[in-house]
Amino acid sequence: MASIFSKIAAGEIPSYRVASDDRYYAFLDINPVAPGHVLVIPRKEVSYIFDLDNEDYIGLQMMAKRVAKAMKAVMPCERIGVAVIGLEVPHTHIHLIPITNEGDMNFANKLSLDPKEMEEIAARISAEYDRQNA
Ligand code: 5GP
Predict the structure, then answer these.
(1) How open is the CA angle 71-13-54, to the nearest 5 degrees?
(2) Which of 14, 47, 83, 94 is 20 to 30 Å from 57 at the Cα level?
(3) Cβ(90) to ligand 1 under 6 A?
(4) Where are the domains of the chain?
């Protein structure tokens, strides 16, 4: 059975998309630890990031880099923090989180933002991603 993230990447379950290509998909985490928290996934369904083959692993990291650069340009933050956890959803994903302080990456403190705000953030990152990668 397809994972929830495969269904999101296929458009079968809605998401706040920020970037995608034929191999990777990036979208807002539904319960962000900070506004602008993005998940980057391979369309290929592999549970554990270190089980990806080298080409898919490097491609995923390159996609995360491009998305992080767009996020940094439009979200108020010092840096984009990176985390891989994967204990909840068994489909490889990289967390990208706008941070200013160490405590901004506290996974025990999840937010639930207004859909309008989620839409606006996704649109802002997406437009910047398209601008940088035109
Ligand atoms: P992890 O597997 O890395 O422990 O956590 C999975 C992450 O995916 C969590 O931060 C959670 O909020 C997010 N998540 C789980 N289900 C969905 C979903 O259906 N849509 C979105 N956008 N994010 C999800």
Answers:
(1) 55
(2) 14
(3) no
(4) 4-132
